[in-house]
Design goal:
By secondary structure, the chain is an alpha+beta fold. It contains three helices and nine strands. An eight-stranded antiparallel beta barrel has the order 1-2-3-4-6-7-8-9. α1 packs across α3. It is elongated.
């Protein structure tokens, strides 16, 4: 099936967007781990954490560069895939606010960005990949920062379509790397935890045109971090997102 020049240019734009997101995630890993190793290099424990962080980056990079290679495939090949299977592809990027649960019984606000890619195989069902990063400074007056880097995937459903409005429900699972201060008898300690995370979210999209939309949503995010200096427990967090969506393949029906 022939693909016109407009479709090819749109697919090229999607490839560039995917490439930028991949490089952004890699840069976040590098900067965050370097910063932790630099600031806390005075102790042997901190040097051990920095070394473990560097190994984590090395383990993550193969997956990132596989995605990079796929993103650099010639657009005619990608065009054939889209033509053959016909999903609606949505690439979104925007602002996120995360109300992060912190011990003891406190909550801090983190600001950041969220990027995701959705493949909608039918008008009411799709699959979403999501990467988010949020950060706050001087958390709990400790002089330390807190941040959350999440990488999730899962199904998304669109139960209601009304004119330009579409509602969605999502259930995503993956992992999140959480850092932040840990209250102790001698002040605040610093650490990070990279464990299972999941999200349940709802929201709505408003079609600005056949190719552009605005999306807003609210999510419950479950992560894991230290609830005491020697004990790890679950965190019940709330995340809000506001994103611009670029759509390839037409509107959902």
């Amino acid at each position: 099936m022939a693909i016109n020049e407009t479709s090819q240019s749109l697919l090229e734009a999607l490839q560039r967007s995917l490439l930028c997101n991949i490089l952004l995630v890699d840069a976040i890993f590098e900067f965050s781990f370097w910063q932790r190793g630099y600031r806390t290099s005075e102790t042997a424990q901190a040097r051990s954490v920095a070394a473990l962080s560097a190994r984590t980056v090395k383990l993550m990079r193969p997956a990132l560069f596989v995605a990079l290679i796929l993103g650099l495939l010639p657009h005619p090949a990608l065009s054939q895939v889209v033509a053959a299977h016909g999903p609606v592809v949505n690439a979104a990027v925007g602002y996120s606010y995360l109300a992060l649960s912190q011990a003891p019984n406190s909550r801090v606000g983190l600001n950041g960005a969220d990027a995701n890619l959705s493949l909608d195989f039918r008008s009411r069902v799709g699959f979403r990949l999501d990467v988010g990063y949020a950060r706050g400074s001087n958390v709990l007056g400790s002089g330390r920062h807190a941040d959350v880097l999440s990488y999730l995937a899962g199904p998304v459903a669109y139960p209601i379509h009304y004119r330009r409005w579409t509602t969605y429900v999502e259930a995503l699972a993956g992992a999140a790397r959480v850092t932040g201060p840990i209250p102790s008898a001698n002040g605040f300690l610093g650490a990070y935890v990279n464990k299972l995370a999941w999200v349940l979210g709802v929201g709505a999209e408003y079609d600005l045109s056949s190719s552009w939309a605005f999306r807003a949503g609210a999510e419950y995010m479950h992560t894991t971090y230290y609830v005491a200096p020697t004990r790890i427990g679950g965190q019940n967090n709330i995340r809000a997102v506001a994103e611009i969506v670029r759509r390839f393949g037409g509107r959902r029906r």
